[in-house]
Design brief:
It is globular, with a radius of gyration of 23 Å. The protein has 12 helices and 22 strands.
């Protein structure tokens, strides 16, 4: 064992020196819940602070590598060697902007070696000249790897921003949200899953309500039953099932956040596949289809008295929707598609808040870029939604910076529309935003995934009681 440790130490000393990564300009330190001095590493963590860059301009982004334990806490004494690779047109420098000699280069794949220093290693990634996508990945033996997809926009991308900044404050969105996305629930119930609180079988929605949740989030796909869809042949999270779930949410006296994916399949920063029914349409008809689909879903919900209290026009849309036409590299077309969705929402109910949701919880500069360009192109919305998963979106300090910056610049309420770890702390961060700009947060699939609130047999874990105190503090 001593020999193995010595070999690792010698190897690490031979690698490029890495920045410790701790941001000295931060006035707030969340180490009390986010960092531990030592522990068992489970996964590498890779944060790219911009995942959208323009080709041909030498644009760059900071890259931060660390390791986390099973509770998503950063381990600060880790000195682990790792490899970092780039597949595509980009170069990597160390934190001091010095060239790093790669250990291999083949076609479009370049690989470098490095080591964590006090738990962190930072790089500078320089974009190349070829528009498109490329991948950056950190890996080491025995741990889950971590990766990001970077989108290089055409060199001629027209940067825009609103004529007047900061924007005048928008009205606050009420009520504040303590929410849960439980879109898997019908599938779980069909598989025989039941839920229990203190040993008593309880409907999952009623159980969440009893512990302080006041919002349920549901995702909806266009044709999930398609052979390449989210739920081939079964149609989970389709139109009919969404209406049925909305009736259950309404019957429980809870609010509904509806999340349009505008796809037959998962929509996120790395995939925004066009629905099969919209293939082959020109842009005018594609825009009309998106608007008509949005209107049809909302009309069905309205007819049964379950119109949502809030709607997301797209899911994690920092790289756009309905590719390729609605990719962020086509900003005017993306804006037109988003406006079509928003217009359908406004027609269904002009007072129903609309959210724009990005997977950029800690990527302040990129979030500003996105909202600047969409607002300047006339996209109208009410709430800024962010996903925050530490594995991809940086530290709580990064999340705090992003939320403060967006709230101040754009004058809109902020919602952490997806998170999993650090349940109490996420709400504390949101609801402490200046000017009451924290609208709330929504945990992603707490019934059965990641940092869940139930065990495999459906028994509520003690962790669910966090929400009793959160509701008492923030929903009074």
């Amino acid at each position: 064992m001593r020999r193995i440790k010595l070999i690792i130490l010698i190897f690490a000393l031979a690698l490029p020196a890495c920045n410790s990564g701790h941001q000295k300009e931060q006035s707030t330190d969340f180490s009390s819940f986010f960092r531990v001095q030592t522990g068992k590493p489970v996964t590498l963590v890779l944060a790219c602070y911009k995942t959208t860059l323009r080709a041909g301009h030498g644009e760059e982004t900071r890259v931060r590598v660390s390791v986390a334990d099973s509770l998503d806490r950063e381990i600060t004494d880790a000195e682990l060697p790792f490899r970092i690779s780039v597949t595509g047109d980009a170069n990597l420098l160390d934190a001091g902007r010095n060239e790093i000699t790669p250990i291999s280069r083949a076609d479009t794949l370049t690989v470098w070696e490095a080591s964590l220093n006090r738990g962190v290693c930072e790089f500078v990634l320089i974009a190349g000249n070829t528009p498109g996508k490329f991948k950056i990945e950190a890996s080491t033996e025995g741990l889950w790897p971590a990766s990001h997809e970077i989108h290089l926009l055409p060199a001629g991308f027209q940067l825009m921003q609103p004529a007047v900044l900061p924007l005048p404050p928008s009205p606050h969105i009420r009520p504040p949200m303590i929410g849960a996305d439980i879109s898997f629930l019908p599938q779980l119930e069909d598989e025989g899953m039941k839920f229990y609180d203190n040993g008593v079988e309880t409907d999952a929605i009623e159980l969440l309500k009893s512990h302080g949740f006041n919002y349920i989030r549901l995702r909806i796909f266009v044709n999930p039953e398609h052979e390449k869809g989210y739920s081939p042949g079964k149609g989970y999270c389709g139109y009919d099932q969404t209406l049925a779930m909305a009736r259950r949410v309404k019957a429980a006296g809870l609010n509904l956040l509806l999340d349009f994916h505008y796809s037959d399949y998962w929509a996120d920063p790395q995939q925004q596949y066009k629905p099969s029914a919209w293939e082959g349409q020109d842009f005018e008809n594609l825009t009309a289809s998106l608007r008509k689909y949005t209107a049809t879903v909302l009309a069905g919900l309205k007819a049964q008295g379950t119109l949502p209290q809030m709607v997301q026009v797209g899911n994690e849309i920092n790289h756009g929707i309905v590719w390729p036409e609605g990719h962020i590299g086509n900003p005017d077309q993306l804006a037109s598609l988003l406006k079509a969705g928003v217009e359908a929402c406004r027609e269904a109910d002009p007072f129903m808040p609309v959210m724009m949701h990005l997977a950029l919880g800690g990527q302040t500069e990129e979030a500003v870029f996105w909202f600047d360009n969409m607002l300047a192109r006339g996209v109208d919305f009410d709430v800024i939604g962010l996903s925050y998963y530490p594995r991809w979106h940086g530290t709580p300090e990064d999340l705090s910076r992003t939320m403060h910056t967006l709230a101040e610049r754009f004058g809109k309420d902020i919602n952490v529309a997806e998170y999993s770890a650090f349940k109490k702390e996420i709400h504390d961060l949101v609801f402490s935003l200046p000017g009451g700009r924290g609208q709330g947060a929504c945990i992603w699939e707490p019934l059965n995934t990641w940092r869940r609130l139930f065990d495999d047999k459906g028994n509520a874990l003690d962790e669910i009681r966090i929400y009793d105190s959160l509701a008492a503090r923030y929903l009074r």
